[in-house]
Amino acid sequence: MLLFDRKFFRCDLYDDPFTPTFRLTEVADYLQAKLPSAEIVKHGELVHEKLTMLPESERDNLLQRLAVGFAKARVHDPYQPVIEREPLYGEIAYERRRLTQRGEAKGVVYDGFMVQELLSSLFNQMEMNRWRLPIVFTNQLLATFDESDRRYHLRTVLLGYPAIVSTTGLVEAPAKPREFYIAREQFRAMGLDAISPVLESELKDRCLLPNDERLTEVAKGYAMQAVFYALFGEAFCDDKDCRLYNAHWQEEMLHAQLDGKYDLCPRHEKMLQNFQGELTNLR
Ligand SMILES: [Zn+2]
Fold first, then answer.
1. Which of 4, 24, 123, 282 has the largest count of CB atoms under 10 Å?
2. What is the CATH classification number for the domain harbouring 257?
């Protein structure tokens, strides 16, 4: 029996051009090597690309809709789920600037599912379906509300359509070693914002730091989680050496992504190979 009734799987990757250590091409090459029969397509930044595809007269409408949507998705209180409300004029203006002047992620946290829904409205059925998965890389911080402890938690990846990988989330979401937090408190008590370079180099093996050259390598595994979820409905693995390991600590994440025993564990590698076989047989 054929599991798949279509001839190909396509994955569209949207760049995060604001994070200098993130290199989309390397992620695309990695996915292509793991899935030789799939079509992996690179794009520029999502909102920019969608705006330029529109006739000029329609761009402002889309921009305004997105700005309002992002402003509504802002998390103001980590202990309260975001509720529907009219955003302030200043919040909308901030989002318009961010979206058009290529603004930075200024520590604003957004409700991840609301952002996912907003971004999904940018794709039609041809561009996003069972056989075509967009993965959006962003430097925005995304969080989801966890009912069990009634608070928001930062996320590395949002699975689904489109999948979203937060490059800032890779640095901020998995917990850092306790020494990092203790040191940060000590430095703050001294009125210093940043942690000393000496301490930074001591912590380097144990967590991703801002502007970390290892970011792209780590991001590959999270893109793969999104692909696995789209293809097989399962994204995570219990094996600490597999790139699909659902790391809660920075150290676990670095181990799984950078120096695990293998790339994917044998079971997940086999799943990919079987899928490749299906695709090749159909051709
Ligand atoms: Zn695995």
1. 24
2. 3.40.390.10
